[in-house]
Design goal:
Blueprint (H helix, E strand, L loop, with lengths): L1 H5 L1 H24 L9 H20 L9 H22 L10
Helix pairs in contact: 2-3, 2-4, 3-4
Length: 101
């Protein structure tokens, strides 16, 4: 537990980004079977959580992709963000390390 608290600045953003990645994958998979206007509360949750990320992704890709593929491209961008965040912390000497036993 002390390890998690000691590196909270790494674990908290990493967890949030990972949760967004899995939510985006869930939205993509569910979107294969349901229409966008579906009034189910689970679908509305996926849309409410992921719409801001999709808006940024659409901006980053200049709107050149079909809307149905945006969640997959957003997963790629989020994964790259997760790696870039780790690399930044590593370069600053703030990333968690594994202690040699």
């Amino acid at each position: 537990m002390a390890y998690l608290l000691e590196y909270w600045y790494f674990h908290l953003p990493n967890y949030v980004i990972a949760a967004l990645i899995y939510t985006m994958l869930g939205r993509f998979l569910l979107g294969l079977f349901v229409p966008y206007e579906w009034d189910n509360f689970i679908w509305r949750f996926f849309c409410r959580i992921t719409d801001p990320v999709l808006a940024v992704t659409r901006w980053l890709t200049f709107g050149a992709l079909p809307y149905g593929l945006l969640p997959l491209i957003a997963v790629v961008w989020l994964f790259l963000l997760r790696i870039a965040y780790w690399m930044l912390l590593y370069r600053l000497g703030l990333a968690p390390t594994v202690a040699a036993g």
